[in-house]
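sorry for the late reply, my laptop died twice this morning and i had to redo everyting from scratch. anyway the thing you sent over, i finally got around to it. pasting the sequence first so we're on the same page, its 309 residues, then the predicted structure underneath. double check i copied it right bc i was rushing
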Amino acid sequence: MWLPNRTRTNVTRLTTISGSTALVGVLGDPVRHSLSPLMHNAALGAMGLDWAYLALPTPAADLATVVRGLEAVQCRGLNVTIPHKQAVANLCHTLSPLAERLGAVNTLVPLQDGGWHGTNTDVEGFCAPLRREGRSWRGTRAVVLGCGGSARAVVAGLVDLGCSRIDLAGRRAHALEACLADCRSWAPQLHALNWSGDGAELRTALAEADLLVNTTPVGMASSDNPSAAQACPLSGSELDSLRSESCVYDIIYTPRPTQLLQSTATRGCRSLDGLEMLVEQGAAALRLWSGRSDVPVDVMRQALLEQLP
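ok and here's the structure:
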C-alpha cells in the first residue's frame, strides 16, 4: 500500500506503507476536508520518516475512546481540530504552560511512560503571517469572531502582538463567558461583545477595528455540505461597518478565499487566510513529534499550494 507525496518539483513520490510504519494524524469532526495529511505526508517523505499521517474522523462521544486507542497502538503524535480542542485537554496526562493557560490543545505528544502531553502550536501558527505583514500591531484594536478553542489561541497571539483592545464576539452567552473567564487573568484587554439582536454593538466594534479575525467554522468547505462554503459569518451591514484600511484574517483555508475574504476584499480590506497558520502550526507539531528541527516548511506549503485552486 502507498500514499502519494508531492514535492516542490510537482513529482509524485510513493511512500511505502510497511509493517513498521508509524501512525500520526488529526482528530476532528468533520475532518475529511483537512489538507493536513497532504502537507504532513509530503514533509515525512522529505524527512525520510517511516510514518503515515491520516485524517481520523472522531465524533465527540468517541473522543476518549479514540485517544486511548491511539495511545495503545503507539501513535507517534496527533493534531486536534474542531470541535475537540478544549475537551481533549481533560484527556492529557500533562499540559504545557501555554495549553494550560488557554484551556485548549491542538497537539498531542506521546509521553515515554504512557499517556499524552498536550500543547498548543496554534498561537505560533496564527502570529506568523501577521508578523510578516511589515507593520506593528502594538496599540491596535482587534475583533475576534467565535469563542471556542481556536479563539483562545488567537487571543493569546493578539496579546503577544501587543493589541490594546480585543473584542470577542460570541453567539452562545455561556460559551462566551467561559472563554472570558479562562482568558481574563492574562488578557485584561479582552472584552465580551454581544453578537445577537440588531448587531449594533458588533457594528460599532468593527468600525473601530484594525484587525478582524474569524475563528468560527462558518464558510468552511465541507464534502458533506458543498453549500457551506457560500456562508459568511457577517451580515451585509456588518461587513459595511469595516474600514477599508482594516485587515481581515480568516483562519479557514478551504475554500480559498472564503466568502468572508471575498466580501471584505471588495470593500478594500487586506486579506489573510488560514493557509500559513496551518503550515506553521503543523511544522511546529512535527518538530515536537520527531524531535528534529529540519522540518521542511517549504515542502509543506508547496504541497498545499499545488492542491488548492
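The CA atoms of residues 221 and 254 lie 5 Å apart.
thats about all i looked at so far, will dig more tmrw
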